[in-house]
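haha ok so turns out i had the wrong file open the whole time. this is the CORRECT one, sorry everyone. sequence first:
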Amino acid sequence: MSKTAEAEGALETRGIEQVPDHERTARTRELFPTWVGANISVLLLTMGASLVVAYGLNIWQALVVAAAAPVVAYGLVGLIGIAGKRGGAPGMALSRAVFGQRGNLLPGSLIWVARWGWETINAVTGAYAMLTILDIVFGIRANSVLDMVTLLAFVVATFAISGLGINAVQKCNKYATYVFGVFSVLVLGYLAVHTDWSRVVHHGAGSTASVITGIGMIAAGGVSWIPSAPDFTRYLPRTASSKAIVGTAVGGAGIVVLPMVLMGAVMAVSTPDLASAADPVSFLGEILPTWLAVPYLLIALIGMLLINSMSMYSAGFTAQTLGFKVPRHWAVSVNAVISLVLGGVLMLVATSFMGSFIAFLSLLAVAFSAWVGVFGADMLRRTEYDGRAMADTTRTSAYWYRGGFSPAAVAAWAAGLAGACCSPPRTGSPARWRRTTSSASTALAGSPPS
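then structure:
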């Protein structure tokens, strides 16, 4: 981030326009805590548990999944991030060069809608973490009113960070990375001492197909960051190392995803209901002692807050590319309101949180993957982006193509989207998820599920 254009921690005023070369003074190492912060979520524990409970994997197969998923997903994040240093603009602004000024509205709209779901899931998870802390520390039981109060508090805090801009997001990520690392080591140590490792090691193995499906499930969260990657690399100079951009993305994500997924898999042996929990964070208060559960939940809460802040930060740019003629920080507020409304519905109405989450990840991967394929193919031949053409939304733009559309790019994107949507779902419906989880829970626990 430029230190000459904007004071560190001040409100970022730049929107989707191209960043001038003299302001592009960021360093690639600053990306490492960014991608660490993007993965600090207790949902990884829940998903790690689902590898054992729903997919029947053993700890060694879970290790393969946990190691491969961040390499696949964040390898792509890093590769698409290279476009940010080339073009000096957010991902969905650069996308205009690929799809055309009007054609970009099609994938842009779908990706924006997909972000609603991602931000809603994180907001609800953050609210659950706050409710769990209130219950453990003060004995305050959750109710509908308190649900909505905690959700509102989480969304407001998210808007405050994302509204300030990239300096605030990156600084928060940096400090959260250190604190989260310390407490993760403590949790790992506690589990190492109190886990029945004979049950963990001798758990039966699942199929190769389940391993592949598990990699796809864990990687889907990372795939959602791919269109946003240039948003965080656009302040890098054109001479920044492409290898370093990819390496910091994979390394930052892997250092969080690998241990958390494995922790979830280990926890599932003693608490198989974890994978199907309606509240995906309250189990930590049951498995861990209070002295460890409370600070860990607080750090996880901060992590989820940062994840949502990064997502809303990027969503503001997407809204601007779709035609919202408002400053970036006000464009962010649109997604804040949407996540508040949808989060309230999910907390008060949805009967299976994890079922809803898995179904959403399937849709998410489809929406983002189709865009990634076309944008990535275009990157293979394009080395620079015309800032004036990106900003010019009229017929005079070099990126107007035919009637505002790039026929080849739009057709390829639509074909990819249609092909993915017509393929059989990998994770199954929420109803099937609950049945599978219930059966696996019974087998592991040796008693009927509650």
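Residues 1-9, 425-450 have pLDDT under 50 and may be disordered.
again sry for the mixup
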